[in-house]
C-alpha cells in the first residue's frame, strides 16, 4: 500500500470516537484492553507494505494506531506461542516448547488473567486456548467460551477481552474449505489477485499452481480483515471504545510453507498494531500512524497488559513491559525457539535484533521441510513445492528448504528480508557472529532452557521433581555443560569427536544423549568411534539408545540396532515411540532400509493412551503408502 492510499484509509479515530462515551467517568480510571488475534499470518497487510494485501480495516487501525515493525512470536506455532502469551514466560523455560503436549507447570506461576482478575478486571477469552499445559482447574478467565464477551462484565469493572479468529489458519486453505467459502459468498469465486499480480518470495518455485494457492490465501486474509471490522463496529456500539486500548496481532508467522513452524522471519515475525483512544494516547510510544522500531515479543505481552492495568508484573515473568506504569527499558533482541513440531523433532534457537537474525540449528541432520503430515494434507502448495524439488526443478534458493540445515545461520535483514544469504560462515562478519552467538548462549543459560532435554525423559523427571520447570531450576540441571556439548555435537566436526567420546561416559543422561546425537550428525565420519557408539547402544536410557541405533544402521546392516529401534517403537513411553518412529522412517526414506525391513520394526504398534493425534501410527501409515 502506498502512502497516499494509507493516509486516505485513516478514518478509524473518528469512527471509534463516535461512540460518545464520557471519557472521564469514574469507572474508566483504568483502560479496558481488547486483544484481536488472527491465526497463522505474517504481516500480510497493506499497512505493512504487502502489495498482495487488501486489508482496509487493519490499514485504518494501523493509520490511527502504532505499528510495531519488529514484533515476534517466540515460537512459530500456535500452542508453544500461546504458552508464552498466557504465562509471561518462555515456553522453553517451562518445558512447553514441544507442539501439542500437556506438561504441568508449578501452581505458583500465575497467568496474567489470574492477576488481572485479582485487580478487579473482568477477563474473557473467545475462544481458543491451546496453552500446551493443563489449565482448566486454574482461574485463568472469568469466562472462556464462544459466548465469552466483555458486554457481560459487571458495571464499573474494566475488562480484558481476547477474541481469536481461525479465518486465516492453514487449515482453511483446503480445497473443500475454499469451495465452502466461495459457495457462501465469503470470498470471490476466482481469486481477487490475477496470477501475474501475485508477488512470490524467492524460495517458492514460480508456477501457476503455486501463484493460485498464494492468491487464494490472500482472499482469506481479506475475509479475516472483515472480521476485524466487525469487532471494531461491535466495540463502537458497546459504548466502550474511548476507554479501550486495542491490540491486534497474528499468533505467529504465516500459513504458507516456510512460514508456520519455521524460525525465520516468515515464521516468527507478526503484524502487531496497538490503538490508543484519546484518553490513553499519552501511553503510546510514538505518534499515531508512526512505526515503533522496538523489538517486542510475546513474552512481553503479559507484562505489558498488567502494566497498562497498573499491576506490577511478577518477578518470574521473563518478558518486559513496553507500555504503561511499569514500562521497562527496551530489549536488544528477541529470543526464539523451535523444538518438536507436530510429529517431527528438531532443536533450534535464535536471536533477532532490529537488523540481524542469528540461528543455531542443534539438529542440522534434519531439513527445515520435514514430512509433516498435517500441512501436507491441508496445503496444496506444500505438495506442489515438494514435487518440484523431487523432480529437480528447483533453484538453489527453492531447494534449500528441503535439504539439511547448516549448523549456524546469520542474516542481515534490511538487505536480505527473505533470509537467503547466510553470512554465518563469512570471514567478513566473524565479530558480528560472535556477538550474536554470545547473546544466544547467555539466553539459553540464563533462562535454563529445557529444550535440550529429550522429550522421552520428561515423564520421569516430572515424577521426581514435580514439574520440568522445577527440575530445570535445580542444580541437577547442568544447562551450561549440556548446551556446550549440544553445540559441539551440532557442529558436526570430526576434530571434536574426542569431546563426544568423553561425553558418552558422563553421568548425566542428557549429556550422553547429545553425545549420541553428535555421532548421528557426523554420519559416516563417526565410523572411527564405532565402539563408543556400540556402547551407547547399550545405554540405560532409551533416549540415548535411539540415536545410537540410527547411527549404526546408517553404517550398514546391524541386527542389534534394528532390534533397539523395534523395541523403542513399542515402548511404554509415547515419546520414545515417536522418536524411534522418526528414525525408522528416515532410514527408510534415505535408502538405509527397505520397506519390508522397515515395516517389520513397526508391526502391531500400541495405540496412544492419551488424547491428541497418534503420530506414531500415522508415520507407519505414511511408510506403507510410500
TrEMBL record:
Gene3D superfamilies for the chain: Alkaline Phosphatase, subunit A, Leucine-rich Repeat Variant
Any Pfam family matching the protein: HEAT_2
Keywords from the named record: Hydrolase, Signal
Organism domain of life: Bacteria
Enzyme class: hydrolase
EC number: 3.1.6.1
GO molecular function term, any single one: arylsulfatase activity
Signal peptide: 1-25
Domain Sulfatase N-terminal: 31-311
The name this protein goes by in its record: Arylsulfatase
Protein's organism: Sedimentisphaera cyanobacteriorum
Lineage: Bacteria, Pseudomonadati, Planctomycetota, Phycisphaerae, Sedimentisphaerales
Amino acid at each position: 500500500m502506498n502512502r497516499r492510499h494509507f493516509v486516505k484509509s485513516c478514518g478509524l479515530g473518528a469512527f471509534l470516537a463516535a461512540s460518545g462515551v464520557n471519557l472521564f467517568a469514574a469507572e474508566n480510571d483504568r483502560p479496558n484492553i481488547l486483544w484481536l488475534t488472527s491465526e497463522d499470518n505474517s504481516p500480510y497487510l497493506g499497512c505493512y507494505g504487502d502489495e498482495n494485501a487488501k486489508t482496509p480495516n487493519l490499514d485504518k487501525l494501523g493509520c490511527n494506531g502504532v505499528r510495531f515493525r519488529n514484533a515476534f512470536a517466540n515460537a512459530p506455532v500456535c500452542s508453544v506461542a500461546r504458552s508464552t502469551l498466557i504465562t509471561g514466560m518462555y515456553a522453553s523455560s517451562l518445558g512447553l516448547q514441544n507442539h501439542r503436549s500437556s506438561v504441568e507447570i508449578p501452581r505458583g506461576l500465575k497467568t496474567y488473567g489470574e492477576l488481572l482478575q485479582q485487580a478487579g478486571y473482568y477477563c474473557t477469552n473467545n475462544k481458543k486456548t491451546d496453552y500446551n499445559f493443563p489449565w482448566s482447574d486454574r482461574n485463568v478467565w472469568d469466562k472462556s467460551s464462544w459466548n465469552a464477551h466483555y458486554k457481560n462484565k459487571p458495571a464499573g469493572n474494566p475488562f480484558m477481552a481476547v477474541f481469536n479468529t481461525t479465518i486465516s489458519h492453514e487449515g482453511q486453505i483446503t480445497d473443500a474449505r475454499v469451495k465452502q467459502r466461495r459457495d457462501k459468498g465469503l470470498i470471490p469465486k476466482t481469486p481477487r489477485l490475477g496470477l501475474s499480480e501475485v508477488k512470490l518470495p524467492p524460495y517458492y518455485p514460480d508456477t501457476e499452481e503455486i501463484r493460485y494457492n498464494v492468491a487464494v490465501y490472500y482472499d482469506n486474509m481479506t475475509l479475516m480483515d472483515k472480521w476485524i471490522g466487525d469487532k471494531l463496529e461491535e466495540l463502537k456500539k458497546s459504548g466502550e471504545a474511548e476507554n479501550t486500548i486495542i491490540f491486534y496481532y497474528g499468533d505467529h508467522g504465516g500459513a504458507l510453507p516456510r512460514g508456520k513452524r519455521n524460525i525465520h522471519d516468515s515464521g516468527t515475525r507478526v503484524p502487531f498494531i496497538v490503538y490508543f483512544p484519546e484518553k490513553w494516547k499519552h501511553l503510546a510510544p510514538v505518534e499515531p500512524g508512526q512505526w515503533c522500531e522496538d523489538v517486542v515479543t510475546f513474552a512481553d505481552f503479559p507484562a505489558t497488559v498488567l502494566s497498562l492495568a497498573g499491576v506490577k508484573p511478577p518477578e518470574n515473568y521473563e518478558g518486559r513491559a513496553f507500555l504503561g506504569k511499569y514500562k521497562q527499558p527496551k530489549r536488544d533482541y528477541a529470543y526464539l525457539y523451535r523444538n518438536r513440531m507436530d510429529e517431527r523433532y528438531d532443536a533450534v534457537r535464535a536471536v533477532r535484533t532490529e537488523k540481524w537474525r542469528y540461528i543455531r540449528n542443534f539438529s542440522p541432520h534434519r531439513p527445515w521441510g520435514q514430512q509433516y503430515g498435517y500441512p501436507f494434507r491441508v496445503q496444496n502448495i506444500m505438495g506442489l513445492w515438494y514435487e518440484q524439488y523431487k523432480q529437480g526443478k528447483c533453484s538453489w534458493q527453492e531447494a534449500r528448504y528441503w535439504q539439511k540445515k547448516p549448523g549456524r545461520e546469520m542474516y542481515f535483514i534490511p538487505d536480505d528480508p527473505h533470509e537467503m544469504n547466510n553470512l554465518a560462515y563469512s570471514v567478513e562478519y566473524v565479530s558480528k557472529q560472535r556477538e550474536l552467538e554470545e547473546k544466544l548462549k547467555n539466553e539459553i543459560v540464563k533462562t535454563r532452557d529445557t529444550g535440550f532435554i529429550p522429550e522421552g525423559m520428561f515423564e520421569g523427571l516430572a515424577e521426581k521433581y514435580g514439574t520440568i520447570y522445577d527440575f530445570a531450576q535445580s542444580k541437577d540441571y547442568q544447562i551450561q555443560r549440556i548446551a556446550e556439548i549440544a553445540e559441539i555435537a551440532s557442529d558436526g566436526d570430526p576434530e571434536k569427536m574426542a569431546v563426544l567420546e568423553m561425553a558418552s561416559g558422563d553421568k548425566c543422561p542428557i549429556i550422553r544423549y547429545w553425545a549420541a546425537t553428535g555421532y548421528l550428525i557426523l554420519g559416516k565420519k563417526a565410523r572411527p568411534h564405532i565402539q563408543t557408539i556400540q556402547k551407547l547402544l547399550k545405554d540405560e536410557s532409551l533416549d540415548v539408545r535411539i540415536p545410537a541405533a540410527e547411527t549404526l544402521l546408517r553404517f550398514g546392516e546391524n541386527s542389534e540396532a534394528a532390534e533397539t529401534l523395534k523395541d523403542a517403537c513399542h515402548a511404554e513411553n509415547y515419546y520414545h515411540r515417536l522418536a524411534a518412529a522418526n528414525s525408522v522412517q528416515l532410514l527408510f526414506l534415505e535408502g538405509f532400509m527397505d520397506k519390508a525391513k522397515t515395516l517389520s520394526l513397526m508391526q502391531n504398534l500400541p495405540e496412544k493412551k492419551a488424547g491428541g493425534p497418534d503420530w506414531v501410527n500415522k508415520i507407519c501409515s505414511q511408510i506403507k503408502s510410500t
